[in-house]
Amino acid sequence: MSKSILLKRKLRKARVRAKMSGTQEQPRLAVFRSNRSIGLQLINDVEGKTLVSVSAKEVGKAGNKTGQAEKAGRLLAEKALKLGIQRAVFDRGPYKYHGRIKAAAEGARAGGLKF
């Protein structure tokens, strides 16, 4: 990638991240997207601990990558509800709210998590 694309991504991540913080009651739902997979984590920023994490690899082959992201979001919401977490702050990081990021967020909402 060129320097300008990486710089824009870094600035976008810092801008998004500066506006939010996760707590025990309302953790931050952080998203990581690679070319082949997607990872979701619920993070308590006060203690610096990951409460729940899910990868698209845990979901298995669920159609295309967007379908895997949606099912990963549902699985994360299911695990969070078992721990008593009902609300979260969505951190899209350097990614635009589109495609797999949007599918993961909608899957988490469909699973019962509130943003």
Automatic annotation (TrEMBL):
InterPro entries: Ribosomal_L18 (IPR057268), Ribosomal_uL18_bac-type (IPR004389), Ribosomal_uL18_bac/plant/anim (IPR005484). GO terms for cellular component: cytosolic large ribosomal subunit. The gene is rplR. Belongs to the universal ribosomal protein uL18 family. SUPFAM superfamilies: Translational machinery components. GO terms for biological process: translation. This is Large ribosomal subunit protein uL18. GO terms for molecular function: 5S rRNA binding; structural constituent of ribosome. Keywords: Ribonucleoprotein, Ribosomal protein, RNA-binding, rRNA-binding. CDD domains: Ribosomal_L18_L5e (cd00432). This is one of the proteins that bind and probably mediate the attachment of the 5S RNA into the large ribosomal subunit, where it forms part of the central protuberance. Part of the 50S ribosomal subunit; part of the 5S rRNA/L5/L18/L25 subcomplex. Contacts the 5S and 23S rRNAs.
